[in-house]
Amino acid sequence: MMDALDRAIANTQAHLDALRNASGHWEGRLSSSALSTATAVVALALVDRERHALPITAGARWLCEHQNVDGGWGDTTLSKSNLSTTLLCWSALHLVAQRPSPTVQSADAWIMGQVGSLEPAAIARAVVSRYGKDKTFSVPILMLCALCGTLGDKPWRHVIALPFELAALPRTWFGAVGLPVVSYALPALIAIGYTRFKNAPPAWWNPLRWLRALTWPRIRPMLQVLQPSSGGYLEATPLTSFVTMALAGGGQLDHPCLPLAVDFLVRSKREDGSWPIDTNLATWGTTLSLRSFYVSAPPKQWLLAQQYREIHPFTNAPPGGWAWTDLPGGVPDADDTSSALIALKKMGHGGDAAIQQGITWLLDLQNRDGGIPTFCRGWGTLPFDRSTPEITAHALCAWWVWHDELSPALQSRIAKATQQALGYLKRVQLQDGSWIPLWFGNEHTQDENNPVYGTAQVVNHLSGSEQLAVVFNALIQTGREYLCGAQKLDGSFGGDRDAPASIEETAVALQALGGVESEKVFSGVEWLLTATREGTHFPPAPIGLYFARLWYHEQLYPVIWTLSALRAAKKVLTQRG
Tens digits of per-residue pLDDT, 378-394? Predict the structure, then answer.
């Protein structure tokens, strides 16, 4: 067993090291996405179908080739069909196809099976029902359907109006006014809100008609201010595509942000005709890789260069944070900032001004409930802006690995913030001992949540500092008890006890089981050794959650987490003989 474990660790480490690029960091590879491909095809077709005929044709062909056998589409080629992605692909093919095809007819049947009919009102109700009060994704979906002609003769009556005029308010007010979209979707609020207004304005006597008409000249330039030099909002194909098609559909083809956005979409297309969900997760992947093993030439200066030194125009975030990518469309967030700080500590970096600024950035982000949100403090009305347990635990780990090298003032702030975070984590822990994460889900659980991943990562982060582990020992133990109960008979883990097993979920759970009986660790190691062929085979699973219930998988995740799990398991098994 130990010989096989040693071989797997060496193989996995070599595999991960080989995935580094020429600059010494990791870019990874995100899954191709039917949703991204559909939105890009529609955006390019509405801007200039003739000029962009080649990528449009290639994208449509890819969609046809990757339709699921049931007639629908999932977010990745490994995903089961879902209504949102199927509606987008179905509508895109309606727009660009020369004539009805078997692909579209199969999608017709799948949608009818899910919705009950192809009536626009029924489709709109089903989409809104899926996302509830969060309009971040439901409104863009319905807008795309309207632009493609799949919502009937009067399509815009089914597209909910967005109050784009609120973008004219001071950014510090956004948390209080309760925007119907999450903080990172501000360009969508503006562009989609305008095109819906343009195509279906309120009655002439409604004050909103005049307010929106008067505020548009002031708000219109904001889309260019918010646009990064790459042209891609958040470096994400869906968001960039939605903004692009909204402007085209609203008669704004002369908008100055369109050339860059279109160029981003054209450059983002892959050789097979598909588009990924985002360009890369380079900073995130690099920090996770550096934390999993020692490399001889860690890209410390590269990582330090990714820290934001100015107020971010997108979320108004102060300097000090890190984003998920090294590209200009990134936005600083708590998870990546925590991971960067922990990675720098592992690499032996000193507690200089950059570290103190990063720690302060995280402390300032803490919500009144004691938890840590992803992007913006106080934006708690929608799911993707609320506090979340796995990111809260991650921030705690970042604070405490640096605690002893910080000023007395920061140490005092950390002590107070830790107690508030402890209260939050106690409140949101479920009765069975689990925590539900925000940014990772599982398509195969009943509610699409992932308590195994969430619980494992809370335990892993809280165990990342000896001082922290003492304070949170009771929570760590209850989390491990949940994981023991969620482990399958063969030693593996899925999103919950009933969901199919994955390398990713098994690895993060196995790492968290460092304090339980060795039999649990032993059976998990055996499964992981078999599944990865002793560290040489890493098929990914779509457990990442991006935007609103939008799945992806990432090449690096199974490799990084397997390496961390195997190294932790070796330590446990060695200690216990």
Answer: 766 666 678 999 999 99
Contact yes or no for 486/496 (Cβ under 8 A): yes
Q: Which residue intervals of 318-407 are DSSP H helices?
A: 334-346, 353-365, 389-402
pLDDT digits (tens, 9 = 90+) for 452-508: 999 999 999 999 999 999 999 999 999 999 999 999 999 999 999 999 999 999 999
| pLDDT tier for residue 541 given thresholds of 50, 70 and 90 | very high
Q: Which of 395, 428, 461 is the last residue of a domain?
A: 428
The separation between CA 125 and the C-alpha centre of its own chain, rounded to angstroms, equals: 26
My answer on whether 332 and 459 are in the same domain is no
Rounded to an integer, what distance in angstroms lies between the CA atom of residue 298 and that of residue 240?
Answer: 33
Residue matched to tokens 């005709």: 273
DSSP state of 224: H
- From residue 42, how far is each of 104, 181, 191, 194 by CA, in Å? 15, 22, 15, 18
Residues 361 and 330 placed together within one structural domain of the fold: yes
CA-based torsion, 285, 290, 296, 301: positive or negative: positive
Query: Where residue 75 sits, what CATH number does that domain have?
Result: 1.50.10.20
| Dist CA 287 CA 339 (whole Å) | 6
Which of 226, 258, 276 corresponds to the end of one domain?
276
Give dist(CA 329, CA 103) in Å, integer: 35
* Rounded CA separation 451/436 (Å): 5
Residues 269 and 294 in one domain: no
The structure tokens 């579209």 sit at: 104
Query: Residue 547: which domain range?
Result: 1-30+430-577
Q: Which amino acid is at 80?
A: K
Spatial CA neighbour of 76 closest among 107, 137, 39, 32: 32
> CA triplet 73, 75, 76: central angle to 5 degrees?
100
Residue appearing with tokens 């969609």: 63
SS3 content of the chain, % helix, strand, coil (to 5): 60, 5, 40
Who's near 28: CB < 8 A, 6+ residues apart? Answer: 19, 280, 281, 282, 285, 554, 555, 556
Q: How many domains does the chain have?
A: 3
Q: Are residues 20 and 47 in the same domain?
A: no
Q: Are residues 67 and 22 in the same domain?
A: no
pTM for the model stands at 0.94
Residue 335 and residue 374 in contact, taking contact as beta carbons nearer than 8 Å: yes
